[in-house]
Specification:
elongated, Arc Repressor Mutant, subunit A, mainly alpha, three-stranded antiparallel sheet
């Protein structure tokens, strides 16, 4: 498996700096930056603190983005008791997908 495939999985559930990723991948950080830049451009990972140093990266797969959206919905939106039946079903389905 290539670095480009391993890195998004490595940082799927936690934010990491390039140095931390390089250490886990056992590679020189200087060689890692081109790979990280390509992954950011392809939308497979994202910078979570903008350009603030040290830059931290996190995976941005569909499941990760869905999980983040779900957490936002559960924490910031209207109480579940006020949702319609269809909205509750959708939330339940998302919850089941995320917990597989």
């Amino acid at each position: 498996m290539t670095y480009a495939k391993k890195i998004p999985k490595l940082i799927a559930n936690e934010k990491m700096t390039a140095s931390q990723i390089a250490e886990k991948m056992e590679m020189d950080p200087k060689n890692l930056y081109p790979v990280l830049n390509k992954l950011v451009k392809r939308g497979l990972i994202m910078k979570v603190n903008g350009d603030k140093r040290p830059i931290k990266y996190r995976g941005s797969t569909k499941n990760i983005l869905l999980k983040n959206l779900y957490e936002i919905m559960m924490n910031k939106m209207k109480p579940i008791e006020t949702l319609t039946k269809n909205e509750k079903i959708t939330i339940k389905m998302i919850d089941e997908v995320l917990n597989q």
